[in-house]
Amino acid sequence: MDSPWFEGRDPGAIPLAEFDMASPALYPHQLHWPFFERLRAEDPVHYCEKSAVGPYWSVTKYKDILEVDSNHKAFTSVAATSLEQQNLIGVDENSVQAGGFIVTDPPLHDEQRKIFSPALAPGNLATFEALIRERARQTLTALPIGEEFDWVERVSIELTSMMLATMFGYPIEERSQLKYWSDVVAGTPGDGIVESWEQRDQELKNFAARFVALREERRHQEPQTDLISILVHSPLGSQMSDVEFVSNAILLLVGGNDTTRNTMSGGLLALHNDPEQWAKLKANPALVATMVPETIRYQTPVMYQGRIATQDYGLGGKTIRKGDKVAMWYISGNRDTDAIADPDRFIIDRPNPRQHLSFGFGVHRCLGNRLAEMQLRVLWEEIMARNWARIEVTKPVKYAYSSMFRAINKMTVRIHA
Question: Per residue in 206-221, is it b (16+ CB within 10 Å) or e — as a string?
């Protein structure tokens, strides 16, 4: 295997033409920051001619990302949200991009999004808050004090997988299977989850078969509050083909798992790295309200989303040609000093903390953003209620081998009472 293009080289000396930000090898050790800094300063709309995913444009400035993300007519999402071309699932003899309504454009996008909107509206989410809080309390109570343990496994995965099971009406005792399928969708061969595209495809076919069977069960039951039931008992949702249904289920699975799970871990890591912010939060737990969106900005759990140009388009002094692939690097836009003051610092009482790109922008803004924020808020409210002295990260954190998801796979901590 060839060495990564950046290995052993000074980020300030590598020619810009060689920059390939889609290379997943950049991210397990968080080596990407100086490269994005250079791109924002020197080439904010950057063309990568040669990469494992083919040629593509990197958009790295906040204002340019907003322009692309809000113009779905010039930049389509259809089969485009990932730079990878292997992001397909098989159902029967058909295949579909694993993305659901996020890989469609209006009007189909709007029609399918409306099916799920009521389930994730603030009024309906309020009914889940007591359940989320009780689970958070139980999870935190079970943690060992003064001993090392993996926060990702014991807290982040546990809480998000239980919420996923609730939202899907999936057996709670089988919730680890949902987490596994989410990891399969988000991963790439060789990342420790699957070893080949063929194995990944087979696992996604297993997911498809299970969820199609669940849909048939719900079809013959009285309407419930879970997403599958809402889907099959809605006029539009009941007309979805198997491939459309499974694709949307995958979207909701990944959206409900990876983003919240990794932000739960990323927030704790940020507080560990900045004891001043931990002290500030301890002194005023009400700051959880602004800390949550700041954590989502600072972590940026989905690092980029892709688009394909439907026409020639001028951006940042460059011409993006019709048919070109474009990556909007939210992870870079969230650190743009022209848009956000002191962006490399984690500031829990930051003014306007929702001024970030982590949920996307325009018609594709994350549908589950309120649910994610509620889960994070409840968790940190319950942590503050315990009055622990601190939560120490005791070993180097392990990040995922991925250019799309800023996922924390393991984080060893110790609670000091």
Answer: ebbebbbebbeebeee
CATH number at residue 68: 1.10.630.10
The 10s digit of each residue's pLDDT in 123-141 is: 777 878 888 999 999 999 9
| Residue 276 pLDDT exceeds 90 | yes
Nearest in space to 203 (alpha carbons), one of 94, 118, 310, 90: 90
DSSP secondary structure letters along 81-137: SSS-S--EEEETTEEEETTGGGG--TTHHHHHHHHHGGGGSHHHHHHHHHHHHHHHH
Q: What is the pLDDT of residues 188-197, one digit of tens each?
A: 777 778 888 8
Angle at 287 between CA 284 and CA 290, to 5 degrees: 170
| Rounded CA separation 378/373 (Å) | 9
Q: Tokens for 260?
A: 């919240």
Instruction: Answer whether 59's CB lies under 8 Å from 21's CB.
Output: no
Residue 92 has pLDDT above 70, yes or no: no
Tell me how far apart the alpha carbons of residues 213 and 204 are, in angstroms, rounded to a whole number.
14
CA-based radius of gyration for the chain: 21
In a domain, 10, yes or no: no
For 378-408, how does the pLDDT look when each residue is reduced to its tens digit (9 = 90+)?
Answer: 999 999 999 899 999 999 999 998 999 999 9
Which residue from 411, 402, 393, 404 is spatially nearest to 192, judged by alpha carbons? 402
**Hey, which residues does 306 pair with through a beta bridge?**
327
In the chain, the amino acid numbered 281 is L
Note every long-range contact of 335-339, with CB atoms under 8 Å and residues 24 or more positions apart, other chains counting. 335/33, 335/36, 335/37, 335/40, 336/40, 336/60, 336/61, 336/62, 338/61, 338/62, 338/63, 339/61, 339/62, 339/63
- 371 within 8 A of 363, measured Cβ to Cβ: no
Start-to-end CA distance of the chain, whole Å, equals 47
Residue 176: CB partners within 8 Å, gap ≥ 6?
A: 161
Could you tell me the residue range of the domain that residue 32 belongs to? 16-416
* Domain-embedded: residue 356: yes
Would you give the DSSP letter of residue 361? -
231 located within any domain: yes
The number of distinct structural domains making up the chain is: 1
**Is 90's pLDDT higher than 70?**
no
Instruction: Look at residue 342 and tell me if it is in a domain.
Output: yes
**CA-CA distance, 272 to 414, in Å (whole number)?**
11
pTM score: 0.91
The average confidence (pLDDT) of the chain is 89
Residue 110 corresponds to which tokens in the numbers above? 């709007």
